[in-house]
Amino acid sequence: MKKIGVFTSGGDSPGMNACIRAVVRTAVHKGIEVYGIKRGYRGMIKGEITRLESNSVSNIIQKGGTILRSARSKEFTTKEGRREAYEQLQKFGIEGLVAIGGDGTFTGANIFYEEFGIPTLGAPGTIDNDLYGTDYTIGYDTAVNTALDAIDKIRDTADSHDRVFFIEVMGRDSGYIAIPCAIGGGAEIVMIPETETTIQSVVDTLRTGWDRSKTSFIVIVAEGDEEGNAADIAAQVQKTLPYMDARVTILGHVQRGGAPTAADRMLASQLGIACVDGLLAGRKCEMAGIINSQLVYTPFIDTITKQKVINPYYIEMVNILSV
Ligand code: F6P
Questions:
Q1: What pLDDT sits at residue 189?
Q2: With 90 as the cut, is the pLDDT of residue 137 above it?
Q3: Residue 273 Cβ contacting ligand 1 at under 6 Å
Q4: Residue 68 near residue 8 (C-beta atoms within 8 A)
Q5: Domain boundaries, the chain
Q6: What is the largest CA-CA distance in the chain?
Q7: Residue 277: pLDDT above 90?
Q8: PROSITE patterns from the xrefs (predicted)?
Q9: For the CA of 177, the nearest atom of ligand 1
Q10: Is 223 labelled a binding residue?
């Protein structure tokens, strides 16, 4: 293999730039050409492809976002769109790809290989940490620390005003961000999609705390929780406990930006190298990840279909520590 392409796709995450840098520098180190594809599959279809050199990725390791931009592409879900993408890659002689993204990105890469034979290796780039095949995804650690910083600040004002705050954190289908935010942020309650926490149980916990003279509370709600969003949950709780003063904060996309933490830079660099090494060794349709400090390659199909399980003890920890 003499020419490879790299792109970022789906929701951006802090550390994507560090990963791009690692891919480019590893390729240069191995004497192969590397091309940056802008805006994920959408840019691939349009031919937004440029040669990257070692100095193209200077001074980006510390930056949030992605210099290659990111997008979610509808066109690539059609065979016609994928054919156009293939033709663009052919123009540049690109024989293999490194995709930095999440399960949607890897689903596309799998189909692309079956239809057009272009091998892809993936690096897990999502703040959600919901990908099977790695203990941590690139951007997760930064997102959690960003959220925690905000939660600490909210705690100050919650305490001053004797209020209960419902803080919504990201995680479309998962509570991975919510759990360390709740434990590290000293929350009384955490609500995540993986386990059921009813409105009634939230009311009970808050009432018990209130009766024990607690005056301020933090409830962390993962955006994908089955009971609804933080605003809906807060409104229902407030109705039952009118003597409590409830407020809602949605942390939103602030969690997706900012300089990556040391842990994310390290992970991104390691996995970027592993993707290029893997491609050159003939691997395809796999995601590089780290499990128990060991580098592992997991088939895309497993990263998409298997569920990474949250240790239920973490919920118990929130209960124990909020007594
Ligand atoms: O997958 C990452 C993520 O940030 C989720 O936590 C969130 O639900 C989603 O992306 C938001 O997507 P968008 O930026 O397209 O609104």
A1: 97
A2: yes
A3: no
A4: yes
A5: 3-139+260-305, 141-256
A6: 70
A7: yes
A8: PHOSPHOFRUCTOKINASE (PS00433)
A9: 6
A10: yes
Ligand 1 center from residue 12 Cα (angstroms): 8
Q: What are the structure tokens assigned to 73, written together?
A: 């592409």
Q: Is the pLDDT of residue 323 over 90?
A: no
Angle CA 304–298–281, to nearest 5:
130
- Asked, colleague to colleague, whether 3-139+260-305 and 141-256 share their fold, the answer is yes
Q: Which atom of ligand 1 is nearest to the CA of 171?
A: 6
Burial category of 111 from C-beta neighbours within 10 Å (exposed 0-12, middle 13-18, buried 19 and up): middle
164 is an annotated ligand-binding site residue = no
Model confidence at 43: pLDDT above 90: yes
- Report yes or no: 191 and 269 within 8 Å, Cβ to Cβ: no
Distance 1 CA to ligand 1 centre (A): 34
The DSSP code for 262 is: H
Q: Tell me, what's the ipTM?
A: 0.98
Q: pLDDT at position 103, please?
A: 94
Q: 3-139+260-305 in CATH: which number?
A: 3.40.50.450
pLDDT of residue 165: 98
pLDDT of residue 115: 98
200/206 Cα distance (integer angstroms): 10
Per CATH, the architecture of 141-256 is what?
3-Layer(aba) Sandwich (3.40)
When pLDDT is cut at 50, 70 and 90, the band that residue 267 belongs to is very high
- Whether 96 lines ligand 1, by a CB cut-off of 6 Å, is no
Average pLDDT (9-30) is: 98
From the CA of 138, how far away is ligand 1's center (Å)? 14
pLDDT, one tens digit per residue, over 280-308 is 999 999 999 999 999 999 999 999 999 99
The ligand 1 atom at the shortest distance from the C-alpha of residue 102 is 1
Cα–Cα distance for residue pair 108/294, rounded to 1 Å: 26
Is the pLDDT score of 309 beyond 90? yes
Nearest partner of 164 among 222, 227, 228, 219, judged by Cα:
219
Cα 171 to averaged position of ligand 1 atoms, centre (Å): 7
Q: What is the mean pLDDT of the chain?
A: 97
User: Does 128 participate in catalysis according to the annotation?
Assistant: yes
